[in-house]
Amino acid sequence: MNYQPISNDLWAQELRTGKLQLITLGKGRIGEERLEDYVVSGLVDFNDVSYGDNADLLYDLASQVVHHFRSYLSEDDAGRILQVYQREVARLLHAQMQEHYWEEKVDYEVRISKGFSQLKSRAFIRIAGEPVLDHRHSPPDKSNMARYLFGGFKRSLYAEERFNSDSERKLSVILEREATRWFKPARGQFRIYYRWGSDHPEYQPDFVAETDDTIYMLEPKAKNEMDDPQVLAKSEVAITWCKHASENAAKHGGKAWKYLLIPHDAISENMTINGLADRFTVS
Fold this sequence. Notes:
The protein is of the alpha+beta class. The protein has seven helices and eleven strands.
């Protein structure tokens, strides 16, 4: 961080006359009592920073920041920098803190409040004049799959779908042939969350399909993303979710859940769900 001193002079121009006026700000500071307070106040705005548990550490970090600014700025200039750039300074410091983030694993108590949820409604935007394509056929430009809207489904819970890759389209062909019902879940349908750094984003499965004896959660991924840390983090919570769903279903005569993580280049239309499950079920 190498912020430069901020001028005390402020120029104002009247819109009607164009007259310029110089306003000189006073040298006093209005705000926090200590310079360190600006830094700490900015840091505690982050949800993962607890002042009550880490006050000493936060002020130690703040003191280092203030010492840095005092090394090349006057006391007043350092104060103005921290006033004006408080959020940016806190954001930069918080990013450095994330590099040293750690967490102890804890056990969770699983509670199932209900065994079903209503299907979420969805809406797609379609370019005027562009037809809904038959999902059984590849589109003209497979590199731009997200622009196309596909239909012709008989077993999908939704009449129309978008796919992120041609591999997803091929998987829909398999599911149409072999599943009793299937769908691509909308955001918020399953409410599965995973830890990524200090955040807990929602994991949205790509496909869910039901057969005569099993319910599958299927995640096609590019081959070079199979070992990606974020993909594995999503996979971990999905596996846990399927485990608890299976245990609950077993108590009520329901079907087991399985999670499949499938490399995109392994999907072809002549495959079966059982064949995919034998090769790509993770647990």
